[in-house]
Amino acid sequence: MTNSNLILMLGHLMIETGDYNKAEKYFQAILHSSIPNDEEISCIYFHLGRIYRLQSDYTHAVEYLNHAYETHSRAKPLRLASAAKALNAIGILHQEQNNYQEAIEAFENVLKIYGKTIQESHPDVAGTLINLGNTYCQQERFSDALSCFNRAQTIYDCNLPTNHPNVAMLWNNLGNFYYQQLQLDSALDAYQRALAIYEKLLPPNHPDILRNQNNLLKVKSMFGDQYQSTLEWKYGVKNTLFVED
């Protein structure tokens, strides 16, 4: 691994552990105080775009992600795999702003690019399938969503350990899928599987853990008071206070 890859990986780890402000300052410092090459600049813009999206700063997110996608797409030789990752992030950006058709088009184009660059069993393909499935869920196209989730699960089962964070992400999204259809037992099981993985990998105040705990509490509230004590005994989940900073 080259020195530049190690530098970028350190910033990536800051994002994954939820330290977004520190990660933003880190990547901005690299961008302005060193001499990164064209590919490294594109990767920095990609990471900054992710950071801004995770902070719901969509104006800056789309600016940085579009820059990353365009520069990877125009590079000679083409950096198609990197362009696909940037386009996948743009699709998520559309999804979070309820621009569902734009999101679907982005994810479908990502899958087309992956079809030219990586094997169809690659975990990156599964990640985009999950994103596409989530978008279908938001449109209440549940049959299409389940097809995407099942394909993603097959890929992960063959390629990732059962405690991988991507597997947790899949379980959480399956929980959302079941919750939308009021299949509460299945939703509760899926959310609990996700939380069990997250708690082994992430600090207790990580946004993914807090969101997952909140999902569990939503399901518990749907069961009614008579099941509250039973659920707390069975799943070991207590009410968690969520605040908006």
TrEMBL record:
Keyword field: Repeat, TPR repeat
TPR repeats: 4-37, 42-75, 84-117, 126-159, 168-201
Protein name as annotated: Kinesin light chain
Record organism: Adineta ricciae (Rotifer)
